[in-house]
Specification:
Number of helices of chain A: 6
Strand content of chain A: 35-45%
Structural class of chain A: alpha+beta
Radius of gyration of chain B: 32 Å
Strand content of chain B: 5-15%
Number of strands of chain A: 14
Shape of chain B: elongated
Distance between the termini of chain A: 6 Å
Largest sheet of chain B: 8 strands, mixed
Shape of chain A: globular
Distance between the termini of chain B: 80 Å
Number of strands of chain B: 22
Structural class of chain B: alpha+beta
Order of helices and strands of chain A: EEEEEHHHEHEHEEEEEHEE
Oligomer: heterodimer
């Protein structure tokens, strides 16, 4: 399948900010089954310096620096990508096998399980989340079935409530409130899995905004989306679970990056001198073109 | 001394009969329970003699009362401001220093340091591999989770090679000496050598307290280590005469006093992240003379905080894009990410890694360690919990160890133990266990006599200019506060001691004051970062303001005494001198708006001591002390001590005690400004400090003139103003008459030769500004110089008889413009508005 993604972000500052340096993580870093047809990342105004780099974690970062004070900024990311329909396994090894294999893999790279086994800045260990998730993750349970049950439980117990949380709300609070958005559900599920020694990663990307006739539009189709990649043992590797839509990740999920949590792959961060942006808006359009 | 003793029996012959005199050799009566496990009692004859010589020397110096020595050291520690800050604690607490050092024989120490050098080399190669090929992981020598679990593993650094060639330039290590004299490594410190500043200070304190005693027993000096460290840094830099800076997280960091001390001792510039900027891949410090390139950075902040663009975007203390400078030759030590080997799980693998990486056995073993990530190790740990200490492998809070601290397995209650076991089953890779390490004891001074106490020590290594490791001859000793507690887990109440490496055959030269040996002698002033200039300027201003406010209070108190007006500051009484002084104190923020029935004595008390009012003397002194803390590396020891001297006590409302407090405050300030001035070379630091003082004094004169002569003034008012400006006696000797307004104005504002007057202050500021190196290369005067020139010529053109409130208001405005011009030109103006990090924009 071929998809065209267009993502426009606008930032406005009340007073111009000086010496802005930004990390933009909007270009896709390709995974197996993805082929890039073309991509463009346009900025207005043009930055003084600009450099693409990979990592850390499975992400492509464009670092830009502005020499002139910045009053507003418009970032347009546009790319065309071919995606092969991913395998959606019905069953897998036991959780105990996944736990043992995760520790045994002699690999430190960005797609290995080891980097995604530990607490990170946002996904710290939380006893309430651990205890809540434990019944779904028995050591003898099948990894696919157990993680699906956990995902289903999150989907059922939590209210999808845009605006109830923002990107700074700690996952522990969203868990307490049993409501949030895709980012919160993803973080909570990652914390639950890692607490049980199951490698889990935060994936950011997009989903199809214009469903084919007869199919319902998926939730979170008008903005960036997030879901969980779970490492399901040597044989299966990473399998995507979307707790917001309660489904395994299919061909309409377009991943652009993967990290331990949102902080590793947030679309824009950086430093500047001045006050925080006064206005921010973002629009996403994803189209299936063949 | 023995001849003058109280007992008639003391003498060489009798000493054998009755044993040594406890007053002169108290070690003779030291009786550890297990002599073979005591470093003194089990020592060789020549080393034992050194212990005795030292103990006798101590006793001789304090006439048998060893507590006196402790008191001396306590005072010394306090004087140095050498305090240890507990995280989250606003107040620093003194780090108690015990007088009796731990003596280690040089040959025993050399075996230890040989082992440490081997270990440093091993860690260097492990780090180099993890940030390079990662073959240790790929070949199965090191589990990937040991690496990825560490907070200090910086994935961003993979593939970047250190410019200077080394990942580690310094290395600190915690050591324990077992009951039979065998040494063990307890923990590795690869990020920064915390405690090294204390090790220097402890040695200096002890050396000072005991004269040449340490040297006479053959103590090896520290100086070689620090010279090697400095040369090692310099050698790696691209430029011949490099600029080296120590990057501190700032004064709220636990280790800040130590960092400030180190920077001062080694001649490095102490900088914070906001002093630095990266331009085109090079690192620069923002100084009063523009951007100055930095060649090497000794970082004392964690990797994740080092660069908000490349590590944690939330960091407010790092340098954006520092990573870009790393690949362009900037030397940073220790290299970002080196801390990955500090994890508590790493020692479990080091013996095997030594074989595969070095092809050698570890000559100095570490405490036996088991990482629960391995199935066999996990089962071993679970079935031997009582005989082990349990740790969080990566120092994070984990199930069963909610604070992340190490605990002996035997100390867990049954419920806690069940929780711990559950945690180990769920996330085994988060846990490690270590054998219980037993310690040998050392004689420690407690309650005026020697008692056996368990000890551990931290040792330090640095690379010299050839890249070879040089150990510090000594270290930072930690002696257990509890009696004979002999485990390596030590508590908050532990005391520190010096560690002396003894070579009795070759008594060394007395410990020299640490010298740094530059390649050439220069007179150029060190780097003055804009921020430090700013702080010096304000140190001057706050100090002067505190003094001037105390002067106003003193004049007010004198007025009360003269007129007997202790009563209310009557509403109708707006014309009295006292009311004008009260108005001045209000204008300065020293008091809140006085209520109608407040007495002047009450007002005076508030202006001195009300800490809630920002302009009170108490608040000003606190502010001055806070700024001094930031400038600690630039202040001499004596200035530091003087500035830390607290507000004198007084009884609010009691005229006499307030007058006395004012006198003391004025003296405090005079001493301090003399010490500051005396201890500083006449470079930019001194210029900024003095400029701050002069601007403040000029501002005070104008404000006082405005409040005391609001158009008309009585003779009393004018006398008060003369008193404030301290030229009462000059006026009397010159005019021999009552004060007149025009004459007072002329003396206070216009007369160029009057050192307390306005005109004189402005000339001084002019001189200071002229002496500071200019930024402009076209020879045109910079803005501050133009502003001061304008003010000068204005004052020169004023006719004393024509001065009115408007004239003074006009001068105040010009002075404010001058102050603004100075801060705009020299200080980090743009950065004063907080640098906002946009963490998440969506």
């Amino acid at each position: 399948m071929r998809y065209t993604v267009r993502h426009v972000s606008k930032l406005g500052y009340a007073t111009p900010v000086a010496r802005a340096r930004l990390n933009l993580r909007l270009k896709p870093r390709l995974r197996a089954g993805q082929t890039l047809v073309r991509e463009a990342l346009r900025l207005s105004p043009e930055p003084g310096t600009r450099e693409d780099q990979f990592g850390p974690y499975w992400v492509k970062t464009t670092q830009v620096g502005f020499h002139e004070p910045l009053k507003k900024l418009e970032v347009t990311s546009e790319f065309v990508i071919d995606i092969e329909p991913p395998q959606t396994p019905q069953s897998g090894p036991s959780i105990a096998t996944v736990q043992a294999e995760a520790l045994a893999v002699a690999d430190l790279s960005d797609l290995a399980p080891a980097p995604y086994l530990f607490a990170s800045r946002i996904t710290r260990m939380s006893a309430p989340i651990t205890d809540w998730a434990s019944p779904f993750l028995p050591r003898g349970g099948d990894i696919i079935a157990s993680v699906s049950a956990l995902m289903d439980a999150i989907h059922k117990a939590f209210t999808y409530a845009p605006g109830a949380t923002d990107s700074r709300t700690p996952p522990e609070e969203a868990f307490e409130a049993r409501s949030g958005v895709c980012q919160d559900f993803t973080h909570i599920m990652i914390m639950a899995l890692r607490a049980h020694s199951i490698p889990a990663a935060y994936v950011s990307g997009y989903i199809l905004t214009r469903p084919p006739p007869g199919k319902a539009k998926l939730v979170r189709a008008d903005a960036m989306h997030a879901w969980v990649d779970v490492w399901c043992g040597q044989a299966l590797g990473w399998v995507g679970f979307d707790p917001t839509n309660n489904c395994l990740v299919g061909e309409d999920h377009i991943a652009i990056g993967m990290g331990r949590d949102y902080a590793d792959i947030s679309p824009i961060d950086g430093t500047f001198i001045g006050s925080a942006p006064q206005s921010m808006s973002s629009a996403v359009d994803v189209e299936r073109t063949s | 001394m023995t001849e003058q003793g109280d007992t008639p029996f003391v003498g060489s012959g009798e000493a054998d009969l009755f044993g040594p005199d406890p007053e002169t050799d108290s070690l003779a009566y030291y009786a550890p329970q297990a002599p073979s496990a005591d470093i003194y009692a089990s020592s060789r004859l020549d080393i034992r003699k050194a212990w005795h010589d030292l103990a006798k020397g101590f006793a001789g110096q304090c006439h048998g009362n060893l507590q006196l020595l402790q008191d001396y050291l306590d005072r010394h520690v306090e004087d140095l401001g050498l305090a240890f800050r507990i995280t989250g604690d606003e107040q620093e607490r003194p780090w108690p220093l015990g007088p009796m050092p731990i003596l280690i024989a040089a040959d025993e120490w050399e075996k230890v340091t040989d082992g440490l050098i081997q270990r440093a080399e091993l860690l260097e190669q492990v780090i180099a591999d993890l940030y390079g090929e990662q073959s240790l992981v790929k070949d199965g020598h090191l589990p990937a989770a040991i690496v990825s679990g560490s907070n200090d593993f910086a994935r961003r650094m993979v593939g970047i090679k250190p410019a200077g060639g080394h990942f580690l330039n310094t290395y600190a290590v915690d050591l324990a000496r077992g009951p039979s004299g065998e040494w063990r490594v307890l923990a590795d410190r690869a990020r920064f050598p915390i405690g090294i500043g204390y090790a220097i200070e402890n040695r200096q304190a002890l050396a000072r307290a005991t004269g040449g005693l340490l040297a006479s027993v053959g103590t090896r000096p520290h100086s070689g280590f620090f010279n090697a460290l400095r040369r090692g840094f310099a050698e790696q830099c691209q430029r011949d005469d490099p600029r080296i800076a120590l990057l501190t997280p700032g004064r709220f960091n636990q280790s800040y006093p130590e960092q400030a001390n180190l920077a001062r001792q080694l001649g490095f510039s102490l900088v914070e992240g906001r002093d630095l900027t990266v331009r085109d891949g090079r690192l620069f410090a923002r100084t009063i003379a523009g951007l100055k390139r930095i060649d090497a950075l000794w970082r004392w902040i964690t990797t994740r905080d080092l660069d908000p663009m490349n590590f944690d975007a939330r960091s407010q203390i790092g340098v954006p894009n520092l990573v870009a400078a790393l690949s362009q030759g900037l030397v940073v030590t220790n290299w970002p990410g080196s801390g990955v080997v500090e994890s508590r799980a790493m020692p479990a693998f080091l013996p095997r890694l030594a074989r595969s990486v070095l092809g050698e056995l570890l000559s100095l073993p570490n405490a036996a360690t088991w990482w629960c990530g391995g199935a066999t190790e996990r089962e071993f740990v679970l079935s031997n919990l009582d005989d082990l200490v349990v740790s969080s492998a990566f120092r994070r809070p984990i199930t069963g160890l909610p604070d992340g601290h190490t605990r002996p397995g035997a100390s867990f209650s049954p419920e806690e133990r069940a929780e711990l076991e559950r945690g180990i089953r769920m996330r085994p890779m988060d846990y490690t266990a270590q054998e219980i390490v037993h310690l040998s004891t050392t004689p420690a001074l407690a309650n005026g006599r020697f008692e056996a106490r368990g000890f551990t020590m931290r040792a330090y290594l640095a690379r010299d200019e050839n890249g070879d490791w040089v150990p510090l001859q000594g270290g930072f000793g930690r002696v257990s506060e509890q009696g004979d507690l002999r485990t390596s887990l030590m508590g908050l109440g532990d005391i520190s001691t010096d560690v002396c490496i003894i070579e009795p055959q070759r008594p060394s030269a007395p410990e020299a004051v640490l010298k740094t040996t530059p390649r050439e002698i220069r007179r150029e002033q060190g780097l003055l970062p804009s921020q430090a200039a700013d702080n010096l300027f304000w140190l001057g201003r706050y100090g002067e303001r505190a003094q001037q406010t105390a002067r106003i209070v003193r004049v007010l108190v004198d007025q009360i005494a003269l007129s007997g007006q202790t009563g209310s500051g009557q509403a109708g009484d707006t014309s009295s001198t006292a009311s004008r002084l009260a108005k001045l104190l209000f204008n300065l923020g020293a008091i809140a708006r006085p209520s109608k029935d407040a007495s002047y004595a009450e007002i005076a008390g508030l202006a001195l001591g009300n800490g809630r009012q920002f302009g009170s003397v108490r608040s000003l002194i606190q502010r001055e002390q806070q700024i001094a803390l930031i400038l600690r590396d630039r202040l001499s020891r004596d200035s530091w001590r003087a500035v830390q001297r607290d507000m004198p006590g007084f009884t609010p409302g009691d005229v006499e005690s307030m007058a006395l407090a004012c006198d003391r405050l004025i003296e405090r300030h005079a001493t301090l400004s003399w010490l500051l001035s005396d201890g500083m070379s006449r470079g930019p630091e001194w210029q900024f400090l003095n400029m701050g003082m002069s601007i403040e004094r000029a501002s005070m004169i104008l404000q006082a003139a405005q409040a005391i002569i609001p158009g008309s003034a009585s003779a009393d008012d004018l006398s008060a103003l003369l008193e404030l400006v301290d030229c009462q006696s000059l006026y009397r000797s010159r005019y021999l008459s009552m004060p007149y307004i025009a004459r007072v104005y002329d003396m206070v504002l216009l007369e160029p030769a009057q050192p307390r007057g306005l005109s004189f202050q402005i000339s001084k500021i002019d001189k200071h500004l002229t002496a500071i190196p200019p930024l402009r290369t076209d020879g045109m005067p910079e803005e501050p110089l133009r502003a001061v020139g304008k003010l000068r010529s204005k004052i020169e053109g004023i006719e004393a008889t024509l001065i009115g409130p408007m004239t003074i208001e006009d001068l105040r405005k010009d002075l404010a413009d001058l102050s603004e011009a100075i801060s705009e030109r020299y200080f980090l103006q743009a950065d004063r508005s907080d640098e906002v990090r946009t963490k998440r924009l969506f």
